[in-house]
Amino acid sequence: MAPAQPPLFGVDVPDGFHYRPWFVSAPEEQALVDAIGAVEFASFEMRGVVARRRVAFFGHSYDASLGDERPIPEFLRPLASGFASWAGIAVDEFAMALINEYRPGAPIGWHRDAPQYDIVAGLSLLSPCRMKFRRYVAPGAHARAGAPRRLATHEITLEPRSAYLMTGPARNEYEHHIPEVAGLRYSITFRTLRQR
Questions:
Q1: Cα dihedral across residues 83, 164, 128, 136: positive or negative
Q2: What is the 3-state secondary structure (H, E, C) of 8-24?
Q3: Residue of 113, 118, 107, 120 lying closest to 53 (CA atoms)
């Protein structure tokens, strides 16, 4: 099945979210999937709950409990270079890489990436997913009794082999979530460190 064409009038995303379909070719996707097959994944726990996705962290992790830093693998270097060129930064500004494995039925809940990171660059592999956005509200600020349920304000389908950059308001003023995926999906994300 051919990937969907981009919408005629652009995509419904917050300012600072940049999307490119077909960022890698089908052979490049297969090479990445083959290399990922040798990656050691671990369960991921957030706020005491074990996620249904599995993860592999490389470089500067936001959580010291995840163990020693592992260097970013060589097979990810060309992809990092492509993202760096698109973002207009030096490739060594990407301080960490994360590979997520989403098996069918696995979601990722509403969240905003850890505050020490700045630019987030992501690639989707194998199957599409929906990515939803809503304005970020600090934990506890929306918990008052009778507060209306917060709904997504933007949504995009991330097609296989597509990529995004999350910067500016999309990165800092919004949180995002991926509902349960229908088929096996991998995502590869790179993050820069925020300048203090």
A1: positive
A2: CCCCCCCCCEEEECCCC
A3: 107
